[in-house]
Write a structure and sequence with these properties.
Strand order of the largest sheet: 1-7-6-5-4-2-3
Order of helices and strands: HHEHEHEHEHEEEHEEHEHEEHH
CATH architecture of the largest domain: 3-Layer(aba) Sandwich
Distance between the termini: 55 Å
CATH superfamily of the largest domain: Type I PLP-dependent aspartate aminotransferase-like (Major domain)
CATH class of the largest domain: Alpha Beta
Largest sheet: 7 strands, mixed
Radius of gyration: 22 Å
Strand content: 5-15%
Number of helices: 11
Length: 381
Amino acid sequence: MQKTTMADVQSELDEFLAYVKHHSNLVMGYPSARDYNFDALKPFLDYPLNNVGDPFVESTNKDNSRKFEREVLAFWAELLRAPADNWWGYVTNGGTEGNLYGLYLARELYPKGVVYYSQDTHYSVSKNLHFLNMRNIMIRAQSHGEIDYQDLRETLRVNRDVPPIIFANIGTTMTEARDDIGKIQQIMRDMAIPNYYIHSDAALCGSMAPFLDNRPAFDFSDGADSISISGHKFIGSPIPCGLVLARKDHVNRIARSVAYIGNLDTTVTGSRNGLTPLILWYAMKRLGVEGMAKRVRESLALAAETVAALNAIGVPAWRNIDALTVVIPEVHPAVKEKWQLATANGISHIMLMPYITRQHVDDLISDMQLYPAQGQANETN
């Protein structure tokens, strides 16, 4: 094997950095905000920050950022209207872990429960259900992506003797549709179902929804038992991360003391990233409530402009109410490849995340006109 010099290593890194810089500015199909600067946190890369265990219990390991993690959790607990004396949470490595945690709590509360989720639920959920060995039933989705409440009602009627565990989508992957947990709770009341659990998968929308004029029914005040949101999507982070919040009385059912770390084992993972709580804390301090609200308004305005601009050239673009996701017919492979547009079941989508500008939109539209999708050539030429 040829010996590798440090000059070779640096050359390879330089080549990769150029690749990342180029392609990172062309991501319009995946939810990833990039309008951030975390230079202030670079010195912490020199330390092995590890938030092992419960963030609310100090550990014998002092290389941690628990203080900052607790501030982040308290900030979002208030925005998500968690009960003041009955919430708990931690910073996760992303939405999938948060969803796994919510389902885990539900299983411990209702070991014989059945999970109900829509066909438009994120692909990772079926994997989580397999991990947890939980019984589950898929429910139809409406054409715009929201769960079919009538199908849910009829399916619950057949299984009324088993506690339902509802996995609600607060922003589906392809169309950003939101299930209404207020309607879901009404079904429970109509059917006199006393025991049930609702988890809100609010990976993208959880950090946006508190700032919407027409706030969707998705949080603790609306009846959620646990909520998962992502940090690297609308908030923005160079490292995938998120947080999960849950009613504390549910969490107390699974907590156990671990002498080795001098802490409680209440999380999914053991060792946890101590840098991402700092990232979320810095973003919280930089933006604040007003900054987040402004961020939402500006992104929604650009989403509306994008739909109008696409419609003007004959592309039947649409979006759900207050969504940043613009849905279009499947684009030409050259457009999909360049702009990294997620595509499935005959549709592609454009995500108007913070950092996306009108110039991005105009350049994408120019490419769509240059490379029209099959069946649209006559409309756009």
